[in-house]
Amino acid sequence: MDEGEWVRRIQEGETRYLTPLIERYYAGIQKYCYYRLRSEEESKDLTQETFYRFCRHIARYSNSGKCRAYLYTIARNLCNDHLRKRVQFPSMEFDEAVTGEAVWQGLSIEEQVEKGQLVDELLHLLPEEQREPVFMRFCLDLTFRDIARITGVNVCMVQYRVKRGLNSLRSHLERSDHVEQASAVHHRNPAELPLVPR
Description:
10 helices; single chain; mainly alpha
């Protein structure tokens, strides 16, 4: 049974079909909320709120397009509202410095990759208009069309922003590689350095 049929059955009052729908999208919605809010607790709350709002307004849902895009649109709007409230109440504002090196010190590279910290650091090099679609495309595996529906931007603009973001990241990684190689040569033991004719 496809998700369109699940939605139709839910709209008819067969709430047992909510379970497979929630199971299919819960982890991705929570990952997106965490990416936006950087708080496990808040991301769980807003994920639950996303599905609550979906259920509350299910009668109005027309299933025009994918349910996934609709859920991400709800989650995105909730995150935007929540972030606006943080700005209004600075004491609740998330301190980006906390997400920096201090939090990740002592973790192995494998643990950092698993927790998404390395990807996160790279993504934060991009402006928000590129960061969000790159994250959605490669971390959430959303299509360009779904990203366009969720963000309200046309598909060509989404593709352009993703391409620009990837080019920026590629340039940054190439520069980092170059700096690391130069640094490695600079810090060699004198015995390892090639002899320079005098």
